[in-house]
Amino acid sequence: MLLEGNVAIVTGAGPGLGRTLAGVLSEEGARVVVAARTAATLEKIAAEVPGVLAVPCDVTRIDDVRRFAATVIDRFGRVDVLVNAAFPGSHRGNVLDMSADDLEAWRRAVETGGYGTLLACRFIAPHMVAQRSGSIVNITSMSSRKGYAGRSDYAAGKAAAHLLSHCLADELGPYGVRVNCVAPGWIASDVLDEWMRTRAAAEGVTFEEILARDLSAMALRRIATEEDVARAVVYLASHHARAVTGATIDVNGGQLFA
Question: Exposed/middle/buried for 60, CB within 10 Å: 0-12, 13-18, 19+?
Answer without folding.
Answer: buried
